[in-house]
Prior knowledge:
It is a single chain. The protein is α/β, with parallel strands linked by helices. It folds into 2 domains: 2-146, Rossmann fold (3-Layer(aba) Sandwich); 154-322, Up-down Bundle (Dehydroquinate synthase-like, alpha domain), CATH 1.20.1090.10. 43% of the residues lie in helices and 20% in strands. The chain is built from 13 helices and 12 strands. The protein has helices at residues 12-15, 27-33, 53-65, 80-92, 106-112, 150-167, 171-174, 184-197, 212-221, 228-247, 252-261, 272-280, 309-319, and strands at residues 2-5, 21-26, 40-44, 73-78, 98-103, 117-122, 125-132, 137-141, 268-271, 292-297, 300-304, 320-322.
Amino acid sequence: MSRFGAGILNELPGLVRASATLLVADKRVVELHGLPFDTSHVLIDADERIKTLDTWRQVLDALVDNGLDRDAMLIAFGGGVILDLAGFAAATYLRGIRWIALPTTLLAMVDAAHGGKTGVDHPVAKNLIGAFHPPVEVLADTDVLKTLPERETRGGLAEVVKHAVIGAPDLLLRAGRDDPASFVAEAAQVKLEIVGRDLREQGERRHLNLGHTLGHAVERASRYALHHGEAVAIGLRAACRIAEGHCGFAESAAVNDALDRCGLPTRAEVGKDDVLQALRHDKKRRDKRLRWVLPLRVGQVDVFDDVPEALVVAALEEAVTSG
């Protein structure tokens, strides 16, 4: 169950019913907000570059050292990196224990906390190793957003714009204008409804990859100097550009205006060859063909595996600053 609201973290103690618990948290978040639950904990200096098998092993070691059994529960307190990492530890320890997600970034509240995708990165590609393992509860406390750095807020707005294009057109006008706390639940609902119909990405859930094909490749090529939301914004602009030529999409200006209003980048300072190399390892490839999620109109997208290379190259030329 996903819950949203100011002060909702206060409900956590009443939701923890377990033989034992372990908290995995972003060290910086704990410095700002304290521990949300009095228990054994692992504090991590979180950014995308630590989302590795080595850090996953560190969490597993803590689970073992604290003697957690199958009735135990893991609690994850942080942004998408912490949720992905802790959720994967919960998925793999004793073949799966329950976990609770406490997202602390806008991006995590509208996207990463929901749907049960957990995992870590591999040197050749992002999120290459993972498992589907949904949390039993998600508590998105919008009070926490008040301390969020501006760059993190902007990154979260990229996912809001993405969800607007997928299935909530009204959000396109609100992103970058209204207080994000006022539309967190609405933005997350796009993902929650899709995941409710297709948990394991056999069909409709693929729509949530809008902007992520090129976005993940650009993020990897930057060696994660670009934050995820920034990379998604660049990937979303590219998807609109490709869709203009491939399926007649006519609303690129509205999408780009929303991304501009949110202060999101138009290009990445990465090499085109590095991006192409990362695309070759995209986990969404089928039969050596890339799958692209492209908008047909704002509020409707579809999946294509027949995008001409020339359209991809043209979009890539606009998305990167070096050859």
